[in-house]
Amino acid sequence: MKFFINGRFLSQKLTGVQRYAAEMVKAIDALLASEQTAASLRNADWQLLTPADASEGLDLQRIKIRTVGRLRGHAWDQIDLARAAAGGRLISLANSGPVLHRDHIVVIHDAQVFRRPDFFNWRYLAVHRTMGRLLARNAAIATVSAFSRRELAQVLNLSASRIPVFPNSAEHFAATKPDPGILARLGVRPQKFFLFVGSKTKNKNLAVAIRAVQLLDREDVPLVIVGGDNSKVFQDNSGHGVSGLLLAGRLTDSEIAALYAHASAFVFPSLYEGFGVPPLEAMIFGCPVIASTADAVVETCGDAAAYFDANDAEALKQLMLERLAAGAISDQERRRQQERVAFYSWQKSAKSLLDHLAPPASVASAA
């Protein structure tokens, strides 16, 4: 048996999707190197196929890394990868892959291009809607949440029961050592700022958080905004020129960890998510979470967050006031957070994927 993993994510800018792919590959590799998966999978030939412009590698024990082709981007997916993966099972973990490969499982993280076309420019929409429909015809589709499974089933005319779910996790962040020096560099005090982490893109709904800060009218408790934007694809709403905001730009994981550990609360006002990892990252460091009622966010956070309607800046402001009045996180809140974080792990998701790929016992024994 031959299994190929689409390594194009290693040539892309790191966002949640690329981190998912990298962590899943590392977890799959660790399972293959152990006795925790079927012998038929452990004995198979596993290769991570990467384009020539892959910017970083992974430290893998069992999966071989092989650079193939000379093309880039979608052309690499559709031509170089398709050719290199012929004759084997292909796994694509980051939304896209060769549309004509017949033995192919693709993790599509959400249905945003179908449900919220207002978030994207026309060119991006055309490419990704077409690709999604073609992959739904020719490949097996998987996703990261029960919400995304329902959404993809509807927009791609698939049976939800045939779409497996391999969730995200935030446990990779637990090993991050906080760098508390970032507080002094930004000029903020512990428990005297709110935190937003994410790309300044329309689905992240930063505009509502900015309106809530204006309504709060507390310059002594700013909203620290961490992240970049991609205005070539998304509409930007960066909040430049608004008082009560501190635009930190891109920071290291260690700096972000320190901000999680010392913020009054993490604010997550998303309009649409396929999963919602940042709230789990915040929970790792005991940061209270104030999140929107977007379906996937509620699915991820359960009873470990305070919720508001994503379009209601006044409701968000009220929750921010309540958090300031409550002070430090309570022991009960912390226990709920720890339970939510523990519910998700890369190993569990990777094992679910490998179990899905394993041939039935009768077929394996016959082989």
From TrEMBL:
InterPro entries given in the database record: Glyco_trans_1
Pfam families: Glycos_transf_1 (PF00534)
BP GO terms, sorted: lipopolysaccharide biosynthetic process
Domain Glycosyl transferase family positions: 191-327
Keywords: Transferase
GO molecular function, one term: glycosyltransferase activity
Record's signal peptide: none
Gene3D superfamilies named among the record's database cross-references: Glycogen Phosphorylase B
Keyword rRNA processing: no
Protein name: Glycosyltransferase family 1 protein
Organism: Bradyrhizobium frederickii
Organism ancestry: Bacteria, Pseudomonadati, Pseudomonadota, Alphaproteobacteria, Hyphomicrobiales
